[in-house]
Structure formats: C-alpha cells, structure tokens
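[09:14] KT: can someone run the structure on this one? pasting the chain below
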Amino acid sequence: MDDRTKLAAGIAAHLQGLRYDDKRLAEIAAEVAVLNDAVRKAAAARLAFDDEPAAFASLMEKEAK
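[09:31] RB: done, structure tokens below
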C-alpha cells in the first residue's frame, strides 16, 4: 500500500468511520489525486499567495456552478 492509499485509509477510518478494501482505497486515492491536481491548477491560475483565504472559497464556489 503506497503513502496516498494509506492516507486515504486513515482519513476514511479516523475521520469518517468507514472501512474499505485495499483495491477501493487505491481507487479513492487516485480519484483524490486527480481532483487535488485540478483544484491546484485552477487556483494557481487565478489566485496569488498573498490573497485572502476567502478568495479560494469564492473561486471554488464560482467554478462549481
């Protein structure tokens, strides 16, 4: 089990109270990696390091529509 899959397992178990088999955990980890990459790329194109934290939430809300 790689580090991303272990992290997904920890989050599922400790924060959500859920348990999955290793195959599903690997799928979840891969899905989260894709989503995280997309969010980071979208934010990098529109936000600067010194922007207010609320700007990120606002950007995500706009993009979700």
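[09:33] KT: thanks! Residues 43 and 49 are 10 Å apart (CA to CA).
[09:34] RB: yep, looked fine to me
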